[in-house]
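User: My collaborator sent over this chain with a note saying "see what the structure looks like." That's all I know about it. Can you take a look?
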Amino acid sequence: MIKGLKICGVSDPNTLDFILNHPHPPKFIGFITNYEKSRRFIKYDKLQRLINIDKKKVNFVSVLVNPDDEILEKIKNLNFDYYQLYDVDPERTEEIKLKYKIKIITAITVSGEKDVIKYKNYLKISDIFLFDSKGYHKSESFDHSLLDQVPDKLNKMIAGNIQVDDIPNFKYKDFIIDLSGSIENIDGKKDISKIDKLLNLSAKI
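Assistant: Without extra context I'll predict from the sequence alone. Here is the result:
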């Protein structure tokens, strides 16, 4: 059974309101905080207004690529439960976790087996491990069978061009499923009807 859903790349209040008030909300919502190459990136002032709301029981996640001290200081008082860190080594990850007293999702980008085993370097630091493709914002795929070697007890999240109709295939997997591009229109905006389908479908699994 999947452990829940994460909807990533939310950037407008209408979509956020729809998700938070859905009968079957996800466990996590991600916001692109410092990666300007992504079309889902949110500038600080807008981000501050967007997430300064009642989250209900949903966890808000700041998605950060190799964040510097400036952005970390800027967002430290925002309404986040987790920092999702890309391209951050174990020492820096631990430093961030301790300084900001925040839960950590370590994002590991995967193209082969040697990438997957990097999780072992973060075992004492990270709360969740996200296994993603090398594409970052491009919603690329990777071979999910590479994760068969990862222990069941590890708190795992999986991303990488997962489609809404793929969700039943994860019925017997102990993953948190992370979706973004597959619940968007061709113009890159989140599609309420696709999100609704996703949340309703996941509730049946």
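A starting point for your reply to your collaborator: The chain has one domain: 4-203.
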